[in-house]
User: What shape does this take?
Amino acid sequence: MEVTQDLSFIHLISNASMLVQLVMGLLLLVSLLSWWYIFLKLFAIRREVRLTGKFEDAFWHNQNLNELYKQVSGTAQHNQGALERIFAAGLVEFVKLKKQHGVDAAAVMDGTRRAMRATYQREMDRLESHLAFLASVGSVSPYVGLFGTVWGIMNAFRGLANVGQATLAHVAPGIAEALVATAMGLFAAIPAVVAYNRYAHDINRLATRFESFTEEFSNVLQRQP
Assistant: This one.
């Protein structure tokens, strides 16, 4: 079916009512912002997975904790992974508590676990940043687009009041203009939902690795003289 110039995409947007155009503009802005966060989180999570695997290999192949800590502390802050910071926080707290007199082994390990847990929570907050935005875009955008569609269809039917004989040629342009808003809402929502589900899964897997390392590192520290 050949689409006439009157029903071209640009023509439909330019002829839409002001409110529908505002809705389309908002959806376009939200879509661009969500794509920015999608790529931002993609690179951040890939980097975190790579650094986590690298540090796990270094940890299990080097049982000298002091030497490993020197390597971690010698790395620039922005080049450290979450697991490295969890390790450093736990080891620093362990050494500090061991030097204090009158602190039993259970209290030392309890303080060490709390330090690692606090760092773990900060790292998870960093990894989960912007995910709430993607979830909101995925859930709200279709309804925003539907609002623009309903408003546009209302205007299209109100315009028919001034037409003596309503035909498809009179109704089609107005309805088509309104449906563009729904299409833009779906265009914004679908990538955001797919990205959110994927990234939430990847972050949960990283969280499991962090928690497992915390327990394993605690066991290693308990065996320290």
